[in-house]
Design a protein that fits this description.
Elements: H1 14-23, H2 45-58, H3 64-72, H4 79-87, H5 95-102, H6 107-113, H7 116-120, H8 123-142, H9 144-147, H10 150-163, H11 172-178, H12 186-211, H13 216-225, H14 232-239, H15 243-256, H16 267-283, H17 286-312
Helix pairs in contact: 1-16, 2-12, 2-17, 3-8, 5-6, 10-12, 10-17, 11-12, 12-16
């Protein structure tokens, strides 16, 4: 596995380090199949595949079926359902585990919802409700014709093969979901594959954030400042940090030279975020190395097509995500 060199704050050459990390994906595995050298996977392919597939998983958090199904088993709508839904595959874990693995939520917000959620519904009930949410939301947004198409079956097969490369070491959210096994229903098998890929990458992303010396709130503030994540109001409303906490951490980031006085990223801040994303790509490259460049490109093509259907169906609100979705 390639090892990235940690650079001190203010060090020169972070752009080159980010580029080198992407190019270094080729060195993660010397040979991933008998006939497909890893060196053929071009920079940018990992991130493109992730962006194409991830909406197939994450749309559910904004779907009306999410709160409907979880409320029906006794959970509160909103963040309790979100925390319990993602955490349930790990069992009836406490607030500390959820805070650690979800990373950028206020610990006080998490503690307000977890472990109380497990007194209202068991992890097993939550997992079953979550399958129902995925089935209902994807069926509504994509339609039966798309779900029954050859393209949908092709994407499901490619994603499942990609998941064969995933390993659980240091990936607690991924490992919990992987322990669930495959549902055995084509629609849910695709959603489960997208979930495994997303949580595996997310666990690696946390490792990259730690490497960059960004705590949960710092990670949230700097990512919001890139203009590629949540809008500022959505980030503040959904993650539970107080205005005082947000202001104090922003001031600390200004002191570090990562934010300017208006809350925008400095050149150093942009470089650091680029390095985080580059290292995240390295840590989540294995499934795409297994597929190789042509089939990874096919995943990207197919995933984008279905993601466009989700967006057209109103899956993601422009009020939540900067620049739409």
């Amino acid at each position: 596995m390639i090892k990235l060199v940690a650079m001190p704050r203010g060090a020169e050459g972070i752009d080159a380090a980010a580029e080198g990390a992407l190019l270094g994906i080729a060195r993660v595995r010397p040979m991933v199949t008998a006939d497909q050298p890893a060196s053929h996977l071009e920079p940018g392919a990992v991130a493109r595949a992730h962006r194409a597939v991830e909406p197939l998983h994450s749309h559910m958090y904004f779907a009306p079926e999410h709160d409907e199904r979880f409320s029906a088993i006794g959970l509160r709508p909103g963040r309790m359902s979100y925390f319990a839904g993602r955490a349930a595959p790990m069992g009836a874990v406490g607030a500390g585990v959820v805070t650690a693995t979800f990373y950028n939520f206020s610990p006080s917000l998490v503690a307000h919802m977890i472990p109380r959620a497990w007194t209202l519904a068991s992890p097993e009930q939550v997992i079953e409700a979550r399958w129902d949410v995925a089935r209902a939301s994807l069926t509504r947004l994509l339609g039966d014709e798309a779900i029954d198409s050859a393209e949908f079956a092709e994407l499901a097969g490619l994603l499942r093969e990609a998941c064969d490369a995933l390993t659980p070491e240091g990936r607690p959210l991924y490992a919990g979901h992987a322990d669930l096994g495959w549902p055995g229903e084509p629609l849910l098998d695709l959603w489960h594959a997208a979930t495994l890929l997303r949580e595996h990458r997310g666990d690696g992303h946390i490792a990259a954030l730690l490497h960059a010396d960004l705590n949960g709130l710092e990670a949230l503030i700097t990512h919001t400042a890139t203009g590629r994540g949540f809008t500022l109001p959505a980030a503040k409303a959904t993650r539970g940090w107080s205005e005082e906490e947000w202001a104090a951490e922003s001031a600390a980031l200004v002191e570090r030279g990562l934010l300017d006085a208006e809350g925008g990223l400095t050149a150093e801040g942009r470089d650091l975020r680029a390095r985080v994303e580059a290292e995240t790509d390295v840590l989540s490259a294995d499934p795409w190395l297994v597929l190789g460049p042509e089939r990874t490109a096919r995943v990207t093509e197919l995933g984008k097509g279905f993601a466009r259907r989700l967006v057209a169906g109103g899956a993601f609100s422009a009020e939540i995500f900067a620049g739409g979705r």
